[in-house]
Amino acid sequence: MITDAQKDLVRGTVPILKEHGVTLTKYFYSRMFSHHPELRNVFNMGNQQNAKQQTALAMAVLAYAEHIENPTVLLPVLDAIGQKHTSLSIRPEHYRIVGKHLIASIREVLGDLASDELIDAWTVAYGQLAELMANHEGQIYQKLADTEGGWTGWRPFAVRKKEAESDEITSFYLYPVDGGKIADFKPGQFISVRIFVPQLNLFQPRQYSISCAPNGAYYRISVKREFGGELNFNGMVSNRLHDFINTGDIIDVSAPAGNFVLSASENPVVFISGGVGQTPLISMMEDLIASGSDRPKAWIHGCRGRNLHAFHHDLAAWKTDADFERHIFYDVVDAGADPGSVRQGWVDLQHIDRRNFAPNSEYYICGPASFITKHYNDLIAAGVDRSFIFFEEFGPQTIQLN
């Protein structure tokens, strides 16, 4: 049990964490991987390369230190982390490894500032956090085990269909090799897939939103090809799926996870997406239409042009729904675009008549971090209550808005 004096010591490190948190977490990951290189097969090395993982961990450690008096207030954030962890098959033994190297890193990075009392305080505090997370993740694992068709860890799935959705996005239809049932999912959730990447000599996991409505037979993921002379590690995985994973091939898949899901309310919904960020929203929209929902629906999407606009054929079918309206933004508008729904430029909510949206409309945003931040802030400025805005950032959580 952490004492009041130890809580004070942990809180006292908040200024240091604000200034040097990423330095600490970069040192921590380097230290841990040097002692446990096998964990490079567990962690997304792309997020190590672009520093998003180090930033996310630094933000999480800072938030924990700030709320050390009552860390349960962080449960909504910790649930999102726990969902990601269970999709990667993170287990309690991993917390022991992380704890050992995190505490050692605090001592080594802070140097003379790291008194024995401070190290003892952070050791107890980390143990408290690890127990909270492990217990929460244990409940998620148990729920998966109790779910019909559910599983924990990795399960082999075969690609039964590979379909180009645009010039840069391809869908993969995944069916369980064992022929058994698959766990149902909530529209908006993701799965992790794991493939071997020869360039890295590692197995690498990646999360991809399920881009179809629940159907009881398969999961569909829709993956964007990355272009450029020097691909980052994330691009290596996505492009390997494009270039080397074909119909009949087998990949490891985790059970569905994630808490960015469509609510069960009857409120109108407004979907706002940029690029491949539309994939979880496609699942939500397909589910609403398949279920015959009469919730008013609006689709707002931006990408570079029609040839890069995945699922535009679905939009054409959805527009027959009386409660559906769409607003599409292209960088370049060609002659074949629908002038009634397509505009040139970036997504801009000020160019949409929001009088069509009811005051109780729910807004679901997905895209790059800057895209999410802009439209979240635009909605707040327009008077939308925060409780009606939901968003998902692909990769580690680095956005703090709610």
TrEMBL record:
Keyword Zinc-finger assigned: no
Cofactor names: FAD; heme b
Span of the signal peptide: none
GO BP terms in the entry: cellular response to nitrosative stress; nitric oxide catabolic process
Residue ranges of domain Globin in the record: 1-138
Family: Belongs to the globin family. Two-domain flavohemoproteins subfamily. In the C-terminal section; belongs to the flavoprotein pyridine nucleotide cytochrome reductase family.
Name of protein: Flavohemoprotein
